[in-house]
Amino acid sequence: MKYDTFEVLNEVFLNFTSFFKWVHIVLDQNMSLKVTHDIAESLQTGIESLPEIERAFVHCDYEFEHHPQDEHKAV
After folding, report:
1. What mean pLDDT comes out for the span 50-63?
2. pLDDT at 15 over 80
3. Which of 6, 13, 17, 56 could link 21 by a cystine bridge, Cβ 3.0 to 4.6 Å?
4. Helix (H, G, I), strand (E, B) or coil at 42
5. Residues near 72 by beta carbon (within 8 Å), at least 6 away in sequence
6. Closest by alpha carbon to 47, among 57, 38, 39, 37?
7. How far apart are the first and last CA of the chain?
8. What does the alpha-carbon distance between residue 27 and residue 8 come to, in Å, rounded to a whole number?
9. Collapsed DSSP state (helix, strand, coil) of residue 35
């Protein structure tokens, strides 16, 4: 499968001995929910397979106009 629109914005937070990874991806707005879900789930599973990553969170969006830091409080 080929995806024309894909952007990843990353944040990593240390939790003593392990990391939590937040990823924000932008996909084509015409993709089905199933395809979008499968991409996000595959990305999450891949990131969580890394030994230093305890948990990964993947947020899907369909446009580039706003940034994840505008949606969530600063940590």
Report:
1. 89
2. no
3. 56
4. helix
5. none
6. 57
7. 36
8. 10
9. helix
Q: Is 63 left (phi over 0), alpha (psi -120 to 50) or beta?
A: beta
Does this model's pTM top 0.70? My answer is: no
Number of neighbouring beta carbons within 10 Å of residue 4: 6
- Pairing status of strand 7-15 against strand 53-61: unpaired
Output DSSP code: residue 17.
T
Residue type, 1: M
pLDDT (0 to 100) of residue 45 = 96
Q: For the domain 7-71, what is the CATH superfamily, name and number?
A: Cation efflux protein, cytoplasmic domain (3.30.70.1350)
Adjacent-strand bridge partners of 53:
19
